[in-house]
Amino acid sequence: MRGNAQVTVCYGPYESCGLVKHRTFRLEGLQALLKEHGHQFILEETAEWNKVELVVHGESVYTCDIRQLEFGGDGKLDPRCKEAVSAVDDAY
Description:
The structure is a single chain. The chain is globular. The chain has helices at residues 28-36, 79-90; strands at 6-11, 14-16, 19-21, 40-45, 51-56, 59-65. Helix content is 23%, strand content 34%. Strand 2 and strand 3 form a beta hairpin. The protein has a 4-stranded mixed sheet with strand order 4-1-5-6, with helices on one face. Strands 2-3 form a two-stranded antiparallel ribbon. Helix 1 (28-36) packs across helix 2 (79-90). It has a single domain (6-90), classed as Glutaredoxin (3-Layer(aba) Sandwich), CATH 3.40.30. The N and C termini lie close together (6 Å). It has 92 residues and is an alpha+beta fold. It is built from 2 helices and 6 strands; from the N terminus they run E-E-E-H-E-E-E-H.
């Protein structure tokens, strides 16, 4: 399904500098790669700590610890971002 998926990116809070809150800095590379592959996405906060989950057509296609994603960047060198976008491309 390359290039036209509607992806919901569910992300939870994580601890940084002693504060636990929702942050999107680690999602920047993922967002860039999803756009590059032609996918649309919606960011949705969840209560589950340290979690990122990608949902396509109501089905979870990828999940990982948000702290495993690289901070900032374009996602091209981040293996987790590549795995996530590949899972979205392969959905359905």
